[in-house]
Write the structure tokens for this entry.
Amino acid sequence: MSKEYNVAIAGATGAVGIEMIKTLEKRKFPVKNLRLLASVRSAGKKLPYNGTEIVIEELTAKSFKNVDIALFSAGGDISREFRPAVVDSGAVMIDNSSAFRMDEDVPLVMPEVNPEDIKKHCGVIANPNCSTIIMLVAVAPLHRAKKLVRLVAATYQATSGAGAKGMAELELQTRQLLENQPIKPEAFAHRIGFNLIPHIDAFSDNGYTKEELKMLYETRKMLHAPELRVSCTCVRVPVLRAHSEALNLEFAEEISPDEARAILREAPGVEVVDDPANQRYPMPIDATNQDNILVGRIRRDISREDNRGLDIFVSGDQVLKGAALNAVQIAELL
């Protein structure tokens, strides 16, 4: 009989927490007991799991007794506050926030990219930023084959990146705009209905946002490529769920679009959707609720005189592979 594990989910009532519950069930993770943790406001409510209902408990320092794996999606402040309680209890924290991603003693892991790094953990493993995950599922296999030297990304990030409240705000504003009602942005800095906002997370002194810098530093860390040149522009778009990205890639070696397609067809977590003649290419509507990252529009960068550049387009479910699924896959690796 295979071993079973006691699992806790902190932030169980959020969009990612709920997806974590569904993912554990769908992938038949060997759960012995599942403990759902949230704020005192949610304590006593119930959430479905595997044909039953589990009562939500208040998250406290005592919540991790006898827990083997603690999945966290409750924000960086909560993760920092409860890290000692998790580690002291003997559990392993898999954290979805940005709190520990760049800490030297915390591995930042994607099972398709750097599974070997998981062995370095000291009680905490970080889940990467959703945009980095969606990008690297496609980019890492190309990097392994031809060595990536420069990457320029423009993202088209769904409102799901701001959680359930972000998605609800898009739905509400769409109705309000169609009915000529007044708009009051709350989840975002500006109106998101029928609009684009080139601003995700706080701005840094160099003019880049923290979201854009996360993609730079996390990519370098997971690819073990400290010299890799990366520049990103992250944009919030009026899409409910699933992020998309336009990526310009420069390699140390020559690579053709056909070579890239062949590499990507063999890559785990990737589905090549690249048939422009039949209007098939990655779109967020098709990536929603899919485990795989969709990759297409694969073509040679015609601004270059050599054959070392490609342009590609990717779409992936931000809540699923961009958060919950990757966390559960880390737990499977453990």
